[in-house]
Amino acid sequence: MPGGVYTSAEVAKHAVKKDGWLIINNDVYNVSKFYDDHPGGRDVLLNLIGADATDAFEAVQHSDAAKRLLAGLKIGTLAQADAKKYMRLNDVKERQRKATEKTACWLVIANKVYDLTSFTELHPGGREVLLCEAGTDATLAHEKIGHSEQAKEMMKSYVVAELHPDDRRSTTSTAKESLEKNSNSLYTRAKDTSVRDFVLAQIQLMVFLSLGIVAVGFALIYV
Q1: Structural domain includes residue 27
Q2: Most buried residue, 69, 98, 107, 119, by most Cβ within 10 Å?
Q3: C-beta of residue 119 within 8 angstroms of C-beta of residue 158
Q4: Residue 144 backbone phi and psi in degrees, to 5
Q5: What is the bridge-based pairing of β-strands 159-163 and 19-24?
Q6: pLDDT of 27 above 50
Q7: How many structural domains comprise the chain?
Q8: Can you give the residue range of the structural domain that contains 145?
Q9: pLDDT tens per residue across span 105-141
Q10: Of 65, 72, 30, whose CA–CA distance to 48 is shortest?
């Protein structure tokens, strides 16, 4: 019923094509009549019904019109016992600012909030690597470094909340920013290389001309 409260177990029972429910950001939606209208194709929804589709939804940029359309499919909310805990990015920053421990480290990676305070001294790359990102969204910094599956699995134990939907950066946006940053870096290096090559060429030309002038001078002296 509209405005109802449902558990994850109840949502899981609605995982068939004719009766498909899913969860997005602690809200429950009935998408049974929306499959054919979904711009991304019906299979995208059919693969998510009966489960929490928040990560899949946030991984794609959705327009305001799409979000309004989604709101029309809402039938209720997730029971508090099953609901995800959310934190605003400003709250993460404030938590870090007020921390008294020297090794305190609260940060965000891929829309998840981590309390790494007890891990900073154990970090293989050194605690400073973490502390310099404390209180921020460290997704890009994290993605620059390859982490093993074991490390990724270990990270799960330090998750304390999900980043609030209003503060989230989609996977698409993050990848775009990373690409732009890398592109700018490549452009800068290419530009620096071009300038360096130009300067070296000018120096070589000046040396060549100087040697030529000296040679002509000697030739005139001994003529």
Answers
A1: yes
A2: 107
A3: yes
A4: -70, -25
A5: unpaired
A6: yes
A7: 2
A8: 86-167
A9: 999 999 999 999 999 999 998 999 999 999 999 999 9
A10: 30
